[in-house]
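task queued by scheduler; priority normal; single chain, no ligands, no partner chains; default sampling; output format set to structure tokens
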Amino acid sequence: MKLFIIVLLISILGMVASSLYIYEFKHEDSHLHNVQIQPLPYENLVVDFKHAIMGHNPEQVICYREAHRNFYLFTLFLLSSVIGLITVGFVSQRNHGLRLLLKNEEIKTQKEIIESSKENLLSSIRYARTVQDAFLPEKVQLKAILSEYYILYSPKDLVGGDFYWARQTDNFKIVCLGDCTVHGVPGAFLTITSISILNKIAVLNLETPAEFLAVVQKEIFETLMDSPIQDGLDLSVCFFSLDRSTLQFASAHQGLLIIRNGKTEDIKGDRRGLGKDFNHITEPFQNQVVKLTGRERFCIFSDGITDQFGGEKTKKIGKKLWLNWIPESH
């Protein structure tokens, strides 16, 4: 559009400029016939106007008008074109402004809808966090089961896929730590499902954590069997005898750290998780028994710790650095 206007204006100016040099003299008695140096168009326009008012020879007037008709016509055309272009530009700018105004109103409306939807979603997630927290053991319950404990629980999002669980049965104090393979809201729902399964199994008074894991696997499979969910979880299970003399440990893809006499012992679990993808494995979980002296400290953790990025080079903490930190902080 801009290029077209520029070309049009240049063409009009060229034609007008050329018309200034077009002179025709059809009548010998015209006052312009023998003029050596022809006056400028605006001067001729004044003379022409005088001829018309003072009643001079009409042929002189006609001759004069014929001589400069191109100039007058192109000047009128130029003015009309400029006015037309200004009008078109004004209307176009006005329409463009109206379109921008409508677009801004549309964007504003969409922004309000998105912000409202976001707030409703965040409100739902916050409530989901409240529901998830309700399934986790309370401090009073943990204090009754464990004499001293420390929990670092910091989900990446408002809700997460990690959880902890503790319960005392007739023969054992049971402590579990789970890590669902999905995060966020789906992970939160899977943690609630897993905790419900642990609560159900706790009343069975099982004797070993290996048996405990086997029943968890069975319940997880039956719960998710007809669903499209392919995710599962990693789970550590600790059975402390009530007299604190022994610890039994079994784990699905996690480990246990025991700190005693200034040394850290890393007890590894089975290299498989829990879920539909592992139901074909018939080999039982490994049950490990540790004799206790009463001076040990224990640590179970998910990869939420070892997979954290940080430091000057923004690297993962990793298992090695984590094991080095344990003696300094236990």
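post-processing summary
- The longest helix spans residues 69-135.
- The longest strand covers residues 172-180.
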